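The instructor's notes for this session suggest beginning with a concrete chain rather than abstract definitions. Hand out the sequence below and ask the class to guess, before any prediction is shown, which regions might be ordered.
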Amino acid sequence: QVQLVESGGGLVQAGGSLRLSCAASGRTFSRYAMGWFRQAPGKEREFVAAISWSGVTTHYADSVKGRFTISRDNAKNTVYLQLNSLKPEDTAVYYCAATDGGIGVQSDWYDYWGQGTQVTVAS
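After discussion, reveal the predicted structure:
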């Protein structure tokens, strides 16, 4: 089992920045690829970004490419999502997820999920 706890969400003005963190506990964190997803009210959960177990490979949704950056610190069992140039349409609950199957963009690829952290971007 892997337990994931997100933090760092909040209210920010359009154009602002936030850094989300996802702390993992349980089994060896470094064996898992990690992903970030988000879900806005009335919408399906969507892929945001993912990072390989080593941190070498990353992948982003087109909607966030160039604005968001995913990274990880295996020594701290933590994955991060830096959100820059935020837009109102980025408003959502952001979830981190873990998989031992390598990077994936589908939510059902991931085995473990956090409880989510709310990001609200005011216009």
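Then share the key points. DSSP finds no helices and eleven strands in the chain. The longest strand covers residues 18-26.
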